[in-house]
Amino acid sequence: MPRFVTPDGCNLEYRIRGEGPLIVLTPGGRERGEAVAGLADALAEHTCVVTWDRRNAGASDVWFSGESESEIWAQDLAGLIMHLGRGPAWLAGGSAGCRTSVIAALRRPEIARGLLLWSASGGQYASTFLGFSYHAPYIMAALGGGMAAVSQQPFWADRIAENPANCERMLAMDPDAFIAVMKRWMGAFYFRPGSDLTGASNEELRSITLPTLLFEGNDDIHPKAVSDIVAQMIPGTIYLPSPWSDADFMERFTGKTPGSVFDLYPQLAPEILGFIAAN
Question: Is the pTM of this model over 0.85?
Answer without folding.
Answer: yes
